Sequence to fold (229 residues):
Amino acid sequence: MEVKIAPGWKLALKEEFAKPYFKELVELLKNEKESHQIVYPAGQNLFNAFNLTDFDKVKVIILGQDPYHGAGQAHGLSFSVPPRTALPPSLRNIYKEIESDIGVKMPRNYGDLTSWAQQGVLLLNATLTVRANEPNSHAGIGWQKFTDAVVRLLNDKTEHLVFLLWGNFAKQKGEFIDNKKHLVLKAPHPSPFSADKGFFGCKHFSLTNEYLMRNGKTPINWMINEYEQ
Fold:
């Protein structure tokens, strides 16, 4: 089966694409499309995170749960939304923490994080698709196995990555990450329900860059300038 994904990931995940669960997952998505079920993100954005950040370019992983389920929001990058889309509350809080942590001004109405992805930030949702207006509707169809394999590959085949695990779901997903090889930073989810319980003040963005520089890597420019896009 031909999967359209960046070449480094295609090679790294070739065994995963051949497994029965992945073939069943693809078949299920085809059936939903044929039955006119609306699924986000659009097909061309399904592997957007992987295509913008190939396997050998990954420096940082920000793990989300599943895509936004509202029209026009999901484009294959965790926490990110396309231009001209209102900022979701969690992303607004991420911006607040960046401003507090590293002192840069973040946009108020621009949430496209593509520039992070292009610098090596893998914006990975644990589940890559969702039905319109039905959060977590595809959580049990096989994506979890696939993204577990992605995290295991990154853990096993690389070193000196930074894993940003926000919320209990992300923390559980990261249980098999070797914190002697990588930096694992944990905090409550940036959702309005939990951001003030330890996400605000976590300083994950400056800590990430300090670790990258200590290990000979270029730091991430976290600033998002909507006027340069």
User: Anything to note?
Assistant: The radius of gyration is 17 Å. The first strand starts at residue 39 and ends at 40. The chain has a mean pLDDT of 94.
